[in-house]
Amino acid sequence: MSLVYCGVCSHAPGITSRSDMADPALRDPFYAALENQRQEIMATRPDALMIVAAEHFANFFMNNMPAYAIGMGESYTGPIEDPDWLKVPLRTAKGNPDLGRRLVAEMLETVDVAYAEEWQFDHGISVPLHFLDPNNELTIIPVNINCQGPPLTPLHRAWTFGEAIRRAADSVPERIALVCTGGISHWPATPDSGKINEAWDREFITRWEANDRAAMLSYTDAETYRDAGQGGFEIRTFITAAAAGGGKGDVQFFAPIPIFAVGCTVGRMEIV
Amino acid sequence: MSLYQLSKVLYVLNRDDAAKRLWHTEPASLLDGYDLTDEERAALLEHDIGMLYVLGVNGQILMHFAALCGIAWADYIRLMREGVEKYGPVRAGLYAMTTQFNEKVAGV
User: Fold this and answer.
1) Residues paired with A264 in a beta bridge
2) pLDDT (tens place) for every residue of chain A, 272 residues total
3) Which residue in A201, B44, B79, B91 has the fewest CB atoms around it within 10 Å?
């Protein structure tokens, strides 16, 4: 039928694995914002949730790295991490190969997207689902943008990818919700873990809320790496959401939470 | 240096339960399937997180390897810092350290 929800959220593994180390005064409002996002998604009665992540070598590696990939599996398991370490229980999520196939076919008109009938979710998808689909009720279409192994897809292609998702979602009879996950600035899994460039994040959020395409696409990867860390490459997922929704953004929660290693973010993009 | 091969070991360990079982029982035989330098091989077998970090292993799969080795988060951060102190700056990849040795960004 159409895209019925479009939003963004953070996916850092610390959000669940280091929950007990965080200041509750910061943590609990963030969790509440994710719960609000869950309610907003469920209110749209989605037939499927497309979740765009920037995965971390769980499925895609430098032996055969797609810039973009979409799942067409019957089901998916995750997290690939030790569930006791991530503090997210193992689940088998429902897929929909037929829907995935139709979405991929439409997107191929403008983007050379890879498809995968096998996919193990890592924290990039498992952490958001832990909050947004705690009872494992939704049908999931996993999506990936390579933000780990350079060369990376250019930002303007991430925009084109978002446009392709929108066109594909609008072309099927199902109601599609879209959540794009990633960090803004962060230096995850390094000794710098917890470093957050709040000023850079707030500037990016301003551009994202305005859905200022030119301003969002103006970052070079060298600038992003310098100012926002290697985790900053995940702005591709936010840009994809902006292109898919097409309206104005509303960041409902943003706060740097260093022990979670990212400026924790929840937002929605108006669908126009 | 064969950073790709070294990273591939950790990628496989991250997603393959049979490889994890072999790692726990016969780690050296798991590594026989990869073209590693002596330095890389020793770093894996000795769980030398600091050396693996300095060699340029992507932090995401290194983080999971540390968890597989039973290393707690605060120790993982500390071992990377000590690795840079002992072996010098990160030699390859995107996960270089930009903070100071005594700078605990997130309190750990």
Assistant:
1) A255
2) 699 999 999 999 999 999 999 999 999 999 999 999 999 999 999 999 999 999 999 999 999 999 999 999 999 999 999 999 999 999 999 999 999 999 999 999 999 999 999 999 999 999 999 999 999 999 999 999 999 989 999 999 999 999 999 999 999 999 999 999 998 999 999 999 999 999 999 999 999 999 999 999 999 999 999 999 999 999 999 999 999 999 999 999 999 999 999 999 999 999 99
3) B91
Answer positive or negative: Cα dihedral of A252, A257, A259, A264. Answer: positive
Task: Give the CATH fold of the A2-253 domain.
Answer: Protocatechuate 4,5-dioxygenase; Chain B (3.40.830)
> Which residue numbers of B have CB closer than 8 Å to A's CBs?
4, 7-8, 11, 14-15, 53, 58-64, 67-68, 73, 77, 80-81, 84, 94-99, 105-108
**Interface with chain A: mutation pick from B8, B73, B84, B103, highest number of A CBs within 10 Å:** B73
Q: Cβ of A150 and B108 within 8 Å?
A: no
Q: Nearest-CA distance from B101 to chain A in Å? A: 9
If one counts the domains in chain B, the total is 1
Determine, yes or no, domain membership for B24. yes
B10 lies in which domain range? 3-87
Cβ A85–B7 below 8 Å, yes or no?
Answer: no
Contacts of A32 (CB under 8 A, 6+ apart): none
- Would you say residue B18 lies in a domain? yes
Residue A239 identity: I
Query: Could you give the ipTM of this predicted complex?
Result: 0.90
- CATH number of residue B16's parent domain: 1.10.700.10
Tell me the angle at which helices A24-43 and A123-132 cross, rounded to the nearest 10 degrees: 80
